[in-house]
């Protein structure tokens, strides 16, 4: 069965992370938080955005990206998201699940990460002149495209 891992690299806004946590619970996905974080995971805004779902969330915190990659070595199932990408997210093959990486709300993923993994970097299409969309919205769009491609939703009550 396809499993999705949402990897938030140095997220800064607790409400975004809380909303993404809810998405993870709704899709049976796993959330990975890569430090440093711009907030405490005990912060009320995080829990409020996650509502009462936070207790059901599979969430793991990592000291840094290197420690995460020591456990989950990047391969073709690792997908990186950036407004600077050339490929559109629905061109990616998410059918077997994978790791979906998103960077800081104010800076995105580090350019070095994007360069090293350039064949696996995708964007959500946006009208010209729009700088970016909300992190939780981006995660939701990419994750549900993965759900659609993997067809894991067919086992859920629709």
TrEMBL record:
<keyword id="KW-0819">tRNA processing</keyword>
<dbReference type="GO" id="GO:0005737">
    <property type="term" value="C:cytoplasm"/>
</dbReference>
<keyword id="KW-0808">Transferase</keyword>
<keyword id="KW-0949">S-adenosyl-L-methionine</keyword>
<feature type="binding site">
    <location>
        <position position="124"/>
    </location>
    <ligand>
        <name>S-adenosyl-L-methionine</name>
    </ligand>
</feature>
<dbReference type="GO" id="GO:0141102">
    <property type="term" value="F:tRNA (5-carboxymethylaminomethyluridine(34)-2'-O)-methyltransferase activity"/>
</dbReference>
<keyword id="KW-0963">Cytoplasm</keyword>
<feature type="binding site">
    <location>
        <position position="103"/>
    </location>
    <ligand>
        <name>S-adenosyl-L-methionine</name>
    </ligand>
</feature>
<keyword id="KW-0489">Methyltransferase</keyword>
<dbReference type="GO" id="GO:0002130">
    <property type="term" value="P:wobble position ribose methylation"/>
</dbReference>
<dbReference type="InterPro" id="IPR001537">
    <property type="entry name" value="SpoU_MeTrfase"/>
</dbReference>
<comment type="similarity">
    <text>Belongs to the class IV-like SAM-binding methyltransferase superfamily. RNA methyltransferase TrmH family. TrmL subfamily.</text>
</comment>
<dbReference type="InterPro" id="IPR016914">
    <property type="entry name" value="TrmL"/>
</dbReference>
<feature type="domain" description="tRNA/rRNA methyltransferase SpoU type">
    <location>
        <begin position="4"/>
        <end position="144"/>
    </location>
</feature>
<dbReference type="InterPro" id="IPR029026">
    <property type="entry name" value="tRNA_m1G_MTases_N"/>
</dbReference>
<dbReference type="Pfam" id="PF00588">
    <property type="entry name" value="SpoU_methylase"/>
</dbReference>
<dbReference type="GO" id="GO:0003723">
    <property type="term" value="F:RNA binding"/>
</dbReference>
<feature type="binding site">
    <location>
        <position position="132"/>
    </location>
    <ligand>
        <name>S-adenosyl-L-methionine</name>
    </ligand>
</feature>
<dbReference type="InterPro" id="IPR029028">
    <property type="entry name" value="Alpha/beta_knot_MTases"/>
</dbReference>
<dbReference type="GO" id="GO:0141098">
    <property type="term" value="F:tRNA (cytidine(34)-2'-O)-methyltransferase activity"/>
</dbReference>
<protein>
    <recommendedName>
        <fullName>Putative tRNA (cytidine(34)-2'-O)-methyltransferase</fullName>
        <ecNumber>2.1.1.207</ecNumber>
    </recommendedName>
</protein>
<comment type="function">
    <text>Could methylate the ribose at the nucleotide 34 wobble position in tRNA.</text>
</comment>
